[in-house]
Amino acid sequence: MTEDRDRVTTIPGFGFLHEDDRIEEPRTRITPVDGDSIDFRGIDVDIQPVIGTIGVAPASESYTTLVPHDHGGNLDTTDVTTGSTIYFPVFQEGAMLAMGDAKAAMADGEMCGTGAEISTAVDVTLDVVSDPAVSLERPLVDAGDAWKTVASAETLEDACELAHVDLVELLGREHGFDATDAYMFASLVGGLEISQVVDPLVTARNAIPKEYLSNPF
To answer: Which of 3, 54, 123, 153 could form a disulfide with 158 if both were Cys (CB 3.0 to 4.6 A apart)?
Structure first.
């Protein structure tokens, strides 16, 4: 069996606890990959692959690959994984989709600033949704059992609000609700989740089970 290796690191000035004196920065742990797990100091962690950075060209401003925004980018969202479908708004001709920043495993939040970073080959299928019924402003993930609106902003509260606004819009279209009824219904069946809290903008998502929302396209 071929053994591969990845690594998890702390980076000076980066990460959820980067100002905590107890945290050593930098520190790197090499985590061997063998079969379906990685080894962190003798503890097996199941491989759950993630594409950390994925997106299209933004509408106007340019961003480094460290920054998430409406175009996607460094979303660090665990639902961007094997079997998921991710929809992006297209702002520029040709979309110019790009991706990278792969992880063998990463928890929601990416608290130390990295997951188990690893090189990988990505097999993707691309399609264009022409004349969609829903006009996206931000990414939307089909996670198999749920639809998840994804938003990034300067604060977690603002990111949650944007993700919730997008979900309210989808629920209103699906059920013929006005904004207030969709807002109330989302409080019954939605579910806010944290993608990452360490990048220049933070990212959140709002999940709605598919029993309450069919394919919006």
So the answer is: 153
